[in-house]
Specification:
By secondary structure, the chain is α/β, with parallel strands linked by helices. Helices cover about 35% and strands about 20% of the residues.
């Protein structure tokens, strides 16, 4: 076991257990390119994408969120009775009133003296859920109980939309308690600006996107958050980080943001590229197999990056949600990070999933009458 049960010790709080869940299907973006008459290099080199995770007709957001939650709890020494908070961040809600957390609680058999709710702020919702759990613990309101936090999404665009190659799905769940895997610093740096870069009005199946504006907003948010952190923590603070994780709408977005950040900090392009290659690029190893999983995308990168870290290793996590809200968090690896028990979840799901062909993808998207599952 890599974790401890709920405790009253609240001086340090963070991640005590991690679980992930991916759906059972995947589609290669090169096949999507052939379907849409695009050069595959545009999707693989231009956007940096490889495979998108897709739900079968029998799967969906509840399956993902519940699967991740079960896996996180299975790996934790505590009991359901030790939980005082269940919070789910998502932008794939199935109901405007009933929270997704109610479906998760139902599946887990969790009821009673538990605060259970859903958080929405585009891709930033999972981070907000995690922050609320950490702050709830640190405030003393938890009274020794632990929190279960889930970030889960199914990211689909209108067939043929420019966002289609960036689609994906996945869920990450964390038990927030004694930080055996990673402590999360209470101090973080948030930045928000009201914008219409990506939105999905009530009743609309797929998002509307102002692509160029969304790229600019993401880059501006990263620059603002990192600059605020550097002003406070000093220039040397970045070099003390072993890895820097970003929200991953598509991998090239992250590279663009790092290059823009470097330029704003006065770095040479060579320094920015070296920083990206050493500390940022490797964090997205799993995102290449999930595609964008909105609220879960950053936390999939963090979960991947924590594996094998020695105790005391420092990481940063930059969260971005359209609309827009963003936040830079810092984490410190705990003694159980080195073990990386949660790697099995992704390894198992990727090994067992089925790579579908173009016809099956069209069937899944309702573009032709083909059984996809
Ligand atoms: N070979 C290699 N590269 C090629 C190429 C080829 N044959 N053809 C094109 N490219 C390159 C382009 O030069 C471009 O790269 P640069 O930006 O570095 O120049 C890249 O491929 C993409 O090409 P386009 O800009 O022409 O692509 P597009 O306009 O069709 O779509 C997009 C790009 C607007 C980002 C679209 O994928 C999209 O709408 N995505 C969803 C929105 C999104 O993810 N925004 C990110 C910030 S918002 C956020 O983070 C929240 C969230 O999760 C959604």
């Amino acid at each position: 076991m890599n974790s401890q049960p709920a405790s009253h010790a609240t001086t340090e709080v963070g991640i005590a257990s991690i679980g992930l869940q991916l759906p059972s299907l995947a589609f290669d973006v090169r096949d999507l390119a052939s379907l849409r008459g695009e050069d595959p290099d545009k999707f693989t080199i231009g956007l940096g994408c490889r495979e998108m995770a897709l739900c079968s007709e029998d799967e969906g957001i509840v399956h993902l969120a519940l699967g991740a939650a079960r896996r996180a709890l299975d790996r934790w020494d505590g009991e359901l009775d030790d939980l005082g908070l269940l919070v789910v961040g998502t932008e794939s809600a199935v109901d405007m009133s009933r929270p997704l957390s109610a479906w998760v609680a139902d599946g887990l058999g969790l009821r009673g003296a538990v605060r259970s709710y859903e958080v929405k702020h585009a891709c930033y919702g999972g981070t907000l859920a995690l922050r609320q759990a950490v702050e709830w613990k640190l405030s003393g309101a938890a009274a020794g109980k632990a929190a279960l936090v889930v970030a889960a999404d199914v990211a689909l665009y209108e067939p043929g939309d420019p966002g289609e190659p960036t689609q994906g799905a996945g869920a990450v769940a964390f038990v927030v308690d004694v930080p055996t895997i990673a402590s999360i610093d209470v101090h973080s740096h948030a930045w928000s600006e009201p914008e219409f870069d990506f939105w999905r009005p009530v009743g609309q199946d797929f998002p509307s996107v102002d692509g160029p504006l969304s790229l600019d907003c993401y880059k501006r948010a990263a620059e603002r958050c990192f600059r605020r952190w550097i002003e406070e923590a000093g220039d040397a603070s970045l070099s003390k980080l072993e890895a820097v994780c970003f929200h991953v709408p598509f991998p090239k977005m992250v590279k663009k943001a790092v290059l823009a950040l470097g330029e704003s900090l006065g770095w040479s392009e060579e320094v920015s590229r070296a920083f990206y290659s050493e500390k940022v690029g490797p964090t997205m190893g799993w995102n290449l197999f999930t595609g964008n999983a909105y609220t879960a995308a950053l936390w999939i990168a963090v979960a991947r990056t924590l594996i094998g870290r020695t105790e005391g290793a420092r990481l940063a996590a930059f969260s971005y949600g359209s609309g827009f809200g963003s936040e830079l968090l810092t984490l410190t690896a705990g003694p159980a990070a080195i073990d990386g028990a949660w790697a099995r979840d992704v390894e198992t799901d990727v090994a067992n999933r089925r790579l579908i062909d173009v016809a099956a993808y069209q069937g899944l998207r309702g573009e032709r009458e083909v059984a996809a599952a």
